[in-house]
Design a protein that fits this description.
The chain is of the alpha+beta class. It is 31% helix and 22% strand. It is built from six helices and eight strands, in the order E-E-H-E-E-E-H-H-H-E-H-E-E-H. The strands form two sheets. The chain has a six-stranded antiparallel sheet with strand order 6-5-4-3-7-8, sandwiched between helices. A two-stranded antiparallel sheet has the order 1-2. The longest helix is centred in the first third of the chain and has 26 residues, at 44-69. It is globular. The protein starts with 37 loop residues before the first strand and ends with a helix. Keywords: Signal. Residues 221-232 have a biased composition (Pro residues). Residues 215-236 are annotated as: Disordered. Residues 1-22 form the signal peptide.
Length: 283
């Protein structure tokens, strides 16, 4: 059985906060200047948006791919390797703002050499993925690689006629490898264990100390007001915390927000120590 608490009201330390209004992102940029209106009957505008919107959508897919590539398997025959023993808190911020958004997870990992029954030497590990880029960096990929004539020829060769194309059509037009390589070069990934960064374990311990009244009626009397909300953005934030208190049930607390101050406070407690550790190591 899985318990999911959405839009959770926090207790003494964390309170329910109103959701900030998400700001509306600007429309996608237009096709490059100086192009013909069409290529062999295929509207330039339709070809452009079919390609540009595919590129924009791949920012989400490539970030997820980079993030999952850091996951350690639960089993390995390599005695020198580490494996995932336990899932801890995980976070996803998905945004309409391209390519904004972050993924991170805390996981308890163990040396394979310790075995699989009551292993010793297990440590908390943090992994994350985000883009070090702005929207114009992503759009530059489409501007650099757009080839209307080649795109039209490709569609014709596939038997896709101009009259069947709509603004909902998406295609990589055979350039997936090129686009993926450029997107991947903009993704920053992190992975660190608590033996190299004690802050990894400190953040998990801080979250474990939080007391949450599991009541739909709101926070108890005397609860202080929530922190101020974050600036408006298009982020949809989801923090998932597995709860091991019930060993006979699969219990997960899911906290969703769009810029609530309480979410910012939670994240500061969870990732503040590890972020400080990473920042100091990069100086």
């Amino acid at each position: 059985m899985k318990h999911i608490i959405t839009g959770l009201a926090a207790g003494a330390a964390l309170l329910a906060a109103g959701i900030a209004d998400g700001s509306v992102p600007p429309p996608p940029p237009p096709p490059p200047d100086g192009l013909p209106e069409s290529y062999d009957g295929y509207s330039t505008e339709t070809l452009w948006y079919a390609y540009l919107n595919w590129v924009r959508g791949e920012t989400v897919a490539r970030r997820e791919s980079a993030f999952e590539a850091l996951r350690l398997p639960g089993y390995s025959q390599d005695q020198t390797a580490w494996r995932t023993e336990l899932d801890g808190p995980g976070y996803a911020a998905i945004s309409w703002w391209i390519p904004h958004g972050t993924l991170f997870a805390f996981e308890q990992v163990c040396p394979v050499s310790a075995g699989y029954t009551n292993p010793q030497g297990c440590l908390w590990r943090y992994r994350s993925a985000h883009f070090a880029a702005q929207a114009q960096d992503i759009h530059a990929i489409a501007y650099d690689t757009f080839d209307g004539a080649a795109f039209a020829a490709r569609l014709a060769g596939q038997g896709i006629t101009p009259d069947t194309l709509t603004r909902d059509y998406r295609s990589d037009f055979g350039l997936a490898d090129t686009v993926h390589a450029r997107l991947d070069a903009m993704i920053v990934t992190r992975e660190v264990r608590e033996d190299a960064c004690p802050g990894v374990a400190e953040g998990v311990a801080a979250i474990a100390e939080i007391s949450l009244p599991l009541s739909a009626e709101g926070p108890p009397a005397g609860t202080p007001p929530p922190p101020p909300p974050a600036p408006p953005s298009g982020d949809m934030q989801t923090l998932t915390i597995p709860v091991g208190y019930f060993p006979d049930m699969d219990v997960t607390v899911t906290i969703e927000s769009n810029g609530a101050g309480s979410m910012s406070q939670l994240l500061a407690q969870l990732t503040g120590p590890v972020r400080a550790c990473i920042d100091s190591a990069s100086e």
